[in-house]
Amino acid sequence: MSTVTTSTREPELLGQTVVVIGGSSGIGFETARRARAEGAKVILTGRNAERLQQAASEIGALSTAAFDAKDPVAIDRFFADLPTIDHVMVTAGRPYYGRLADMDFSKIREIMGEHLLQALCVARNAVNKVRPGGTVILIGGTGGRRPAIGMSIAGAVTAALPALTANLALEIAPVRVNLIAPGFVDTPLSAELLGDQLEKRRDWLRAKLPIRRVVGPADVAALAIHIMTNTALTGATYDVDGGQQLVTPS
């Protein structure tokens, strides 16, 4: 007679603290939820205090901070009040699409610097707040890799972030720095950007992507947790787009 033994897996982030900047919805919220499931204490930030509090209550976050992550002073102030943490993920911000003829250059100057300056500010603060072996996770994208009309700004940021990630990984070591580059992800932000074209986009992706489904926040969150727990990973860009780069756009 054989005896079947079962083992209970210990949560991979037990006792660790994860900060998610832009954690009230979408990719950030799903990553925070998954980190909690893996035993982490979670600190959420976002611009909308009411939505942030609702998200925090839903997952049992340790604390929240409402501020605009585009403001480097606000980022510095937030980190100054933090204890030592293990991981920080930056999901705040949104892409910009538009033709050259229609661009408002006064706004473009701010948009161009937003993602890069935000990453630099977080990395500089991480030096003194993230424990050795912990990680800074940035979010980029794969869509801007394919040249197209209206993609100048998105393409420039897409190209810059992997280089920034690699250099920061050297400069702030032993804190690790990694970049997740999603394609289309079915989030509230995507719904806002696409409006009544959302379902058409979903249908196209289901038909054309090699995985035959739409990438969701959980797909990105699973990768983020892996990056947090695998301490051999630093300076790299990880695509999670369901093969979107492999197919001809509609």
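The above is record 1. Record 2 follows with the same two-line structure.
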Amino acid sequence: MIQISQNCIGCGKCVSACPFGALSLSNGKAVASNACTMCGACVSVCPMKALSLPQTGAVKKDLSAYKGVWVFVEIADDGQTQKVRPVGFELLSKGRELADQLGEELGAVVIGDNVQNFYAEIAGYGADKIYAVNAPAYREYNTLAYANAMITLIRKYNPSAVLFPSTFVGRDLSPRVSSELFVGLTADCTGLSIAEGNLIQTRPAFGGNIMADIKCPDYRPQMATVRPNVFKKKIIPGKTAQVVSENIAVPFEAGKVRVKETHFDPVNTQEKLDEAEVVIAGGRGMKDAQGFALLDQLAFKLGGAVGASRAAIDMGLKEKEKQIGQSGVTIASKLYVACGISGAVQHTVGVEHCDVIVGINKDANAPIFNVCKYGLVGDAKAILARVLEQLKK
């Protein structure tokens, strides 16, 4: 709660400045209620300097006991087979790099049933230790059960950093863990590095107009989520890992949620943007459904998937799940063709890891030409029609 000194003269300026209605006047003095969030809006308007935020950080916590970079490795289950989500290998490869810079170990946390089948594969991407919670009760993802297991492991072994994938599971699990441990969490990072022993977490901010570097120097572990296809996978031949098995009981509260039935819709591999080797995407310049029909034809010829920019999604030309960019899917295909897409940073942040980018736009000054390897200036619909004619031959 905001602190109010005897210098208060009851002028009321802080009362009108408080966005939460947490301040009022009583007996000629300002009084704060429990609605105060310590936002500090009142501090700057007080002419008597009578308001202040509580002092923090006077006693710094000893962080020397926190060592090691951890990666939560998610096991995907389609009802028939289990496999490690590829983003787990991407995070392990990046985690190996970060751990080497810190001179610490890289740990992989894997929770599930029969996870021993994946130990060798996980070790091959750089893990020094595998912290395994292996039991039938963990076959299905349960927020409370998984969060309890992660929190128990973190409190026991004190890692300095924990990385999660920005998947449905990772986005659900990581904030539950961070709030329980009372540490920060940076979401949807596009870059990770080390500076002065701290994890520097880079992500787009202010609508993607700037890239913000975020660090948490006073608390451990440092936590972040990372989208799939942001980092490259790197196999280390012959790498082995020590397995640390932990028996962690599922808390009683987890029983409040039970999976009664699971249904998986069949999905053509070519429709998965994050796994496709070729992606053809359209933007506002494709104009209508006929324009996107050309994209479908080209994708079919090249064995690829079709995506869209946010502008095209807003026009109703594609479903929301086909959006590529900061607020959509991040891809790392071998070939990416952007048709009628201007190339705003909110879009290009989702395709910057593609091997070859081709841009087609009638505006020669479109930003997409700053990031593509090959650029074609002209009407995208006319150019695609000619390309399709050549492919038919």
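The chain has a mean pLDDT of 87.
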